[in-house]
Amino acid sequence: MIDFAMSAFVTLLLVVDPVGLVPAFLAAAGGLSSRDRARIVVRSPLIAAGILVGLALCGNWLLGQLGISIPAFQIAGGLLLFAVAYQMVFGDRPHREARETDKTMAEQVSDIAVFPLAIPLMAGPGAIATTLLLSNAAGTTSRLVVLILVILLVCLTCMICFALAVPIAKTLGNTGNAVFSRLLGILLAAFSVQFVLDGVASAHASA
User: Fold this and answer.
1) Is the N end or the C end of the chain the one with fewer CB atoms within 10 Å?
2) How far is CA 171 from CA 44, 69, 92, 164, in A?
3) Quick check: helix, strand or coil at residue 110?
4) Is the pLDDT of residue 105 over 90?
5) R_g of the chain, CA atoms, integer Å
6) How far apart are CA 67 and CA 152, in angstroms?
7) CA distances from 62 to 23, 55, 56, 86, 132 (A)
């Protein structure tokens, strides 16, 4: 149980990358009043948590309805996570997200807590795939409860990082943020490869 909790927390934390989302949050909410910014700090992680918890609860049913086998989704999800890890290591993910947020602001200023902060930055393709993979790996109700707690803890971490966005950005700077993102990307790449290996092993065993 402890091993599952730690693995789920580390994997989801690496995918969501709360510290790496700080530049995007500042780009989205930097021009707002303190009151509006505080409301977004609370609301956007809660929306993301609701989405991911819902997926954790109905993930197995959804895959069954779509006719997707667990090994197939493990392999596909692992490949998707590897693509996210590749962008973190070799790309410019934090600054790219900030630029995308700037572009989105001109189109949808009404509720940036929902878009782009909750979706797709926190509850994006990587986080959705990870949640579905972990819900399938849970197996028991107790482990599913642990997964839900992990999701809430990761979203709480996002909330804390958003609340401390200005001092975090000043402390890390551009270089520190780039180094931190790349280190997390290497760890995420290892987790993604493990998901693929598990999927291949499961497919071979069921063949």
Assistant:
1) C
2) 24, 45, 19, 11
3) coil
4) no
5) 17
6) 29
7) 34, 9, 10, 28, 9
